[in-house]
Amino acid sequence: MTPIDTTCAYCGVGCGIRATVTGDRQVRIEGDPDHPANRGRLCSKGTHLGETVGLEGRLLHPMIGRRRASWDKALDLVAKRFRDTIARHGPDSVAFYVSGQLLTEDYYVANKLMKGFIGSANIDTNSRLCMSSAVAGQTRAFGEDVVPASYDDIDAADLIVLVGSNTAWCHPIVYQRIRARCEAGAKLVVIDPRRTETAEQADLHLAIRPGSDVALMNGALAWARAAGVVDEDFLAASLAVPEDFWMALDQGSDLWSVARTCDVAPGDLRRFYEMFAATPHTVTLFSQGINQSTAGTDQVNAILNLHLATGRIGKPGAAPFSITGQPNAMGGREVGGLASTLAAHMDFAADNRARVQRFWASPAIAARPGLKAVDLFREIGQGRIKALWIMATNPAVSMPDAGSVRDALAACPFVVVSDVIAETDTSVHAHVRLPAAAWGEKDGTVTNSDRTVSRQRALFPLPGEAKPDWWIVKEVGRRMGWKTAFAYDRPAEIWREHCRLSTYENDGARLFALPGRSSGGNADYDAMQPFRWGGTPFADGRFPTEDGRARLVPVVQKAIPAPLRDWPMTLNTGRYRDHWHTMTRTGLAPKLARHREEPLVEVHPDDAARLALADGGLARVGTPQGESLYRVSVVASQRPGELFVPIHWTDRTATGGRTGLLPRPLTDPHSGQPGFKASPACIAPVATRWRGFLILAGEAAHRPDCLWATRIAVPAGTLWELAGDGDAAALDRLLPAGERIEAVDAARGTRRVAILSGGRLVAALFVTEAGQLPTRDWLVAQLSKAQAAPTLLAGRAPGATVDRGAVLCVCFDLGVKTILAAIRDQQLADVAAIGAAIGAGTNCGSCRPALARLLAEETIHAA
Question: How many angstroms separate the CA atoms of 635 and 853, rounded?
Fold first, then answer.
């Protein structure tokens, strides 16, 4: 079969993929060596995309309530309910909540329908949760939401600064580019409260106090000015500087004050400032640690101020660089998917509103910005939003204070959900569910973090009655009465309209423009190659503001609240390396589950000792908003007094790990982005009577009813890790029918049960109160055997067995003990040698920091 060039479904790096369909819902995935974003490399998630294209759990037919419906009936109902709600309560009584998982063409049609025809700007996106502070900061500084950098700048940098980004895990391909540049002589500084795997390989790690980024960057600018590296010519020609900017900057920006505010050693701080001042070719990459803050926009502007004042912008290897989380967060920004923008990088100024209305020939145009995500769900809960359409996202999990979001969804008179998955924490509240196309079935475009537009191409025909999101939205628009405006037959038509709008009456005032892209035919669209719009932004020193100058924006470090009596810890949230959002895709891939099988709360050893938290035990994390259970991981990488938890687990996959319940619904006043990184919290150990695991061929009929249950995808089935304080005998109802074998050790409170069917293992339940449990790998492998081994209840093969340890390299399925054995037996001295010997670290490279740590630990042990 001929390979199909497409784009990865995950983060904003926008890696190119060459996909070869090998069978029914089967595909071989390789990196596209010609794509400028990744040059053939893929991370572990992209590498294993082929494991996620099956139809498990898919929504394949429209549903009204719990009943299957025809498309005509479902769409007519959606159009009628929205039309009636608008007639009775006005256009601001309805809302769309959309997603960076949508393609640009999907986004465009949804934004057009809401802002240009319904006449409200109540359309916001889950990208509000990850990069809207970057949007607000760039707009304040540059006059437009423009990322003034490309991945090529990394290749030309002599100093790379990562702020609030665990790049090795969250953007592994960018990290590999960074490491390659560092191996050529560049220096790396990582600014992050946690000592992440990214920080471990840095030349300097500043573990600053959460929320002190403005002080850090203001101090860097004050140091740069004192060192004489402010670019006075650029300042005079290209920057607008408030009269009291420098005087205000000096307040509290001396080295000692900043060190005290940031809680870092003055010597380390001085070293960073000296490195920055001495290195003109500096790229500063920032991500969620900056954006997800109630002061996120100010933190962005502090970084931009530093680069603007020193002239480190618009030049190769010198730029501030916002790296986004979702695959098409940038495309959504370009078409106006945020409630705070109109379309094509235009705001709601009267001339822009008139311009877009003329272009769309629309009957109404939104008069003002709409409700941002947190406010939107608050208005739903208060009854002001009466009809809501959610597309390709799961806000019942991902929003802050998710318990209140669930209450709001339950109370909303009419909820529509367009999704790939039949049952999510959000879709249980839907009155209508519409089956959308998944990654392997979509056709359109996406824009990555460095403004590169790439094609996403369908690999498989649409399954069941699933439809593309653009088709679903345009059909509702037609049924609401706007047939001509939504007469699209294919995504190429939408793309051309989007391109025309980008250049319509655009005399260069807006940098975002796609000239010449609207004239090609369908064949040109089908053959589109990746391209980056905007060239090298600001290379000429001109900015898209009225006077052509960028703005230095005065920002002040806000006081960092003292710990609260009942909530003395600070809770941080984030991603794991091999999982994505709410795991509706990565949760299908057995290999991706191995790196972090359960949701962990990471705790510093001092806090663990003080609070009687045992490594591997359970703990309850609480905030004023809610609480949830986690498995405890005691690690020195945490700052004392701080906790870290992952965002991925849902009610579908665990009884604990519900992180969305915990953060406060407080937002940045400029961007509306929630502050996920610093919630007041408490933690306490949770005792259990027993622990165990359940292995099943296929899926469980229902979720285990016990205190702790976490679902893990494994080859040929599922694994549930279990613990409880009640009667473990209740777990028997999860076992399927079949031949039963059982062993009991009353002294240790241990029971082991295996269920066979035709000689094959179909289920195994191991539970103990005081005994030991075997590793799971061998038993999981028995699910794929035609005849189960006679030692099932021993949990291991006859004779000696090899324990490979926890999986560290997912790409090559290599465990810690396997890697250590290779290091010792083959006397491997560095990470490159490990890769040459057994492959670890040679694909996505995200495990390379962990390999380096293993080597260091082994060297210490050997000494």
Answer: 14
28 has pLDDT over 80:
yes
Determine how β-strand 67-68 pairs with β-strand 717-724: unpaired
Strands 159-163 and 187-191: parallel
User: What are the helix (H) ranges across 92-212?
Assistant: 104-111, 132-142, 151-156, 167-170, 172-183, 197-200
Report residue 118 as tokens: 């319904």
| Strand extents, DSSP E, 383-500 | 387-391, 414-419, 432-435, 444-447, 452-456
What is the torsion angle, in degrees rounded to the nearest 10, for the CA atoms of residue 416, residue 417, residue 418 and residue 419? -170
DSSP string, 294-351: TTHHHHHHHHHHHHHHTT-SSBTTBEEEE--SSTTHHHHHHHT-STT--BTTB-S-HH
Upper half-sphere CA count for residue 238 (Cβ side, 13 Å): 23
Q: Which residues contact 296 (CB under 8 A, 6 or more apart)?
A: 133, 136, 137, 290, 668, 671, 673, 675
Higher pLDDT, 850 or 710: 710
The span from the CA of 478 to the CA of 185, in Å, is: 58
Q: For residue 115, what are the contacts with CB-CB under 8 A and spacing of at least 6?
A: 121, 123, 336, 342, 343, 356, 365, 366
pLDDT top residue among 388 and 746: 388
Identity at 629, one-letter amino acid code: L
For range 707-712, the mean pLDDT = 97
Instruction: Specify whether the CB–CB gap between 399 and 626 falls below 8 A.
Output: no
- Comparing 201-205, 410-414, 818-822, the range with the smallest average pLDDT is 818-822
Contact of 299 with 293, CB cutoff 8 Å: yes
Polymer length of the chain: 863
Cross-strand bridge partners of residue 31 = 17
The pLDDT score that the predictor gives to residue 842 is 81
Query: What share of the chain has pLDDT > 90, as a percent?
Result: 89
Q: 519-527 long-range contacts, Cβ below 8 Å, gap at least 24?
A: 520/496, 521/492, 522/490, 522/492, 525/491, 525/492, 525/495, 525/496, 526/492
pLDDT at residue 862 above 80? no
Structure tokens of 630? 């986690």
Q: What is the mean pLDDT of residues 45-61?
A: 95
Please calculate the CA angle 539-543-549 and round it to the nearest 5 degrees: 115
Query: How many CA atoms does the CB half-sphere of 814 hold within 13 Å?
Result: 24
Kindly provide the b/e burial profile for residues 467-493, where b requires at least 16 CB atoms within 10 angstroms of the residue's own CB: bbbbbbbbbbbbbbebeebbebebbbe
Q: What is the average pLDDT across 652-673?
A: 97
pLDDT at 572 > cutoff 90: yes
Reply yes or no on whether the pLDDT at 800 is more than 60: no
Task: Give the number of other Cβ atoms within 10 Å of residue 697's Cβ.
Answer: 19
Q: Using 50, 70 and 90 to split pLDDT, how confident is the model at 71? A: very high
| End-to-end CA, the chain | 54
Tokens standing for residue 72? 């005509």
How crowded is residue 715: how many other Cβ atoms within 10 Å of its Cβ?
Answer: 11
Q: Can you tell me the distance from the alpha carbon of 491 to that of 107, in angstroms, rounded to the nearest whole number?
A: 11
The model's pLDDT over 766-785, given as tens digits with 9 standing for 90+, comes to 999 999 999 999 999 999 99
Q: Which residues contact 252 (CB under 8 A, 6 or more apart)?
A: 215, 218, 258, 261, 557
Quick check: 10 pLDDT over 70? yes
Q: Under DSSP, is residue 572 helix (H, G, I), strand (E, B) or coil?
A: strand
Whole-number Å distance between alpha carbons of 432 and 62: 7
Distance CA 140, CA 768 (A): 59
For residue 787, give every residue at least 6 positions away whose Cβ sits within 8 Å of its Cβ, in sequence order, or none. 759, 760
Half-sphere exposure (CA, 13 Å, Cβ side) for 591?
Answer: 16
User: How far is it, in rounded angstroms, from Cα 145 to Cα 544?
Assistant: 10
When pLDDT is cut at 50, 70 and 90, the band that residue 249 belongs to is very high
Q: Are 439 and 10 in contact (CB under 8 A)?
A: no
